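Lab notebook, bench 4. Still working through the backlog of constructs that have no structural model yet. Next entry is a single chain of 226 residues. Request: give me the structure tokens for it.
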Amino acid sequence: MERILIIEDETPMRTALADVLNGEGYRPLTAADGEIGLRKAVAEKPDLILLDVMMPKLDGFAVCAELRRLGHAVPVLMLTAKGQIEDRVTGLDAGADDYLVKPFSTEELLARVRALLRRSQRKTKSPTKLKLGDVEIDLARQTALRGRRPIHLTAKEFAMLRLLAEAAGEPVSRERFLDVVWGYAAFPTTRTVDTHIASLRSKLERNPDAPRWLKTVHGVGYKLEP
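Model written out:
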């Protein structure tokens, strides 16, 4: 289920976009201004961002430019009432992938969303194998070995490792783990994530109390040290 962050200050538009995306099987996240949207984009790492241009605190151009400066390659579809060529050029120069002028049809919006997600998925190849010291993990086959000795990992633990590997050394929030690994309808708590990380460390780390690979990022979540 792709996660799409909607950064839009107008409540009716934000709600309508979330309803449309939810109805199409996507998982919408929302932010009501540019500052909150930027923080959510960095912490949650959505698959796509729908970004309004005219917003308080940080406008869409500034949000997009800052995401690119920080190295985030998430596809960005800019939404704006401005239709002048110079505004579209500014948005694209800031790093936007596409531009949609309000008012737009639901069909056109969804077509642009599908196209951007397809393009992004072609660029991104999920890692299938990990080597953590003397531990070799095959994420596709769901096997783990220390030398020739098998290590038993649960399906959820493999899913967490895959998510960490896909983040390529960047932090993964506890909320992101819950959303992707457990599913937002399962109602687990962030303590569930901590418990599973502790289990992974006990199985993979030589010294679980001073982990080399599965690092805590205080106030955020966890990351896999390259």
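Notes after review: Residues 129-224 form a domain with the Arc Repressor Mutant, subunit A fold (CATH 1.10.10.10). The CA atoms of residues 33 and 56 lie 6 Å apart. Flag for follow-up if needed.
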